[in-house]
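Morning!

This is the sequence you dropped in the shared folder:
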Amino acid sequence: MKLDRRNFVSLGATLATAAVLPAGAQSRGKLAFPKGFIWGASTAGHQVEGNDTASDTWFMENIAPTVFKEPAGDAANSFELWETDLDLCKAMGLNAYRFSVEWSRVEPEKGRVSQAALDHYKRIVAGCHKRGLRPIVTYNHFTSPRWFAAAGGWLNPDAAAWFAAYCERVTRAFGDGIDHAVTFNEPNLPKLIGSLNLPPQIAEMDRKTLERAAELTRSERFVPTNVVLPQNLQPMEAAMLVGHARARQAIKAIRGNLPVGFSLAIFDDQAAGGGTAKRDAVRRHLYGAWLEAAKADDYIGVQNYERAIWGAQGRLPPPDGARRGHLGAEVYPASLAGAVRYAHGATGKPVLVTEHGVGTDDDATRQWMIPEALGHLHKAMADGVPVKGYCHWSLIDNFEWIFGYGPKFGLHSLDRKTFVRTPKPSARLYGAIARANAV
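The structure's back. Tokens below.
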């Protein structure tokens, strides 16, 4: 099937005519959000653009052995179809779009900057404004150039300077059009993953993947940001904290009034059965250094997908009968508000929800979760927590890292052969909330 943007633009009429809340959601009553509240959807470059061939992640996906289930390949072809994605946001009635710039496209080889890539992302920013969308731009969403990883990544003493120089180039090229800048996406995720009790064979395959990558690049060590060995967790965190501070400084030097922060992966951590000390220790380990760093930022980005209940000896299983999503995670709508309350309380900063969603093939679960979660978020705001906006993950079904194309987080489904995006009922539901600025 030959792609034509008209196929997608016509979805606007479909979404607009169907943009009504289900009866169950309407019965909640109208909870109005503040004027100017950000309603967005999120994507990430490597996960939707396709053919990110100069990145560390592309390289790891295409070697053997590899921890990745499958390569990203063409992904959603969003590098070509970015206008289509913006049209989807507009058709839903959103007022923001969060996307990421691929460092590997801007600087595919160390010191060699691609003006064409900078111009490409500048066009996306301009396209957002044309459609009334606020561009929320992530400078680093897990992926980095292959040369960066082969040089030791964040374990190289020059890493922070390299990253700051990249951020300076991006901001100089189109920073005047960015609404919010996100330096790092979930820099604490490697630590958080360690608490998920993933099968031990995944950790072993991580090691084998990195050993093979180092061998093929003839480097002493290949250190990407999204496949991390346990012994590298602390030194990488320390280096990325410096990198964030240097990046913020570089961005602010060019546009001082641009809100700068990072997004943090945060559970709604709860204590049960004498688990308060355990919960608090886990919080210090997973978020402590980053929450302290956020005190110097303009806002804190929160990304939440589930709660974690901690007993005295460790994490407890979800309650019997709980709805489940990807990897058996409990779908608990109140978790977003819990994470937001904690992030603001720990930093004193306003919150921007940069990701929230559920991985499931059952869109009815997503339709149930969205209004429930937003109702709890509204209550947190009524209690005085300053929340700037909400961006749902994700706009479309996409490549989900080591799990490949299995998990479905999208508000739109994706035909990977034709790249046609089709709105799910949850897209209509969320669009209706955004248009009404109320749930």
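Headline: The longest strand covers residues 134-140.

More detail when I'm at my desk.
O.
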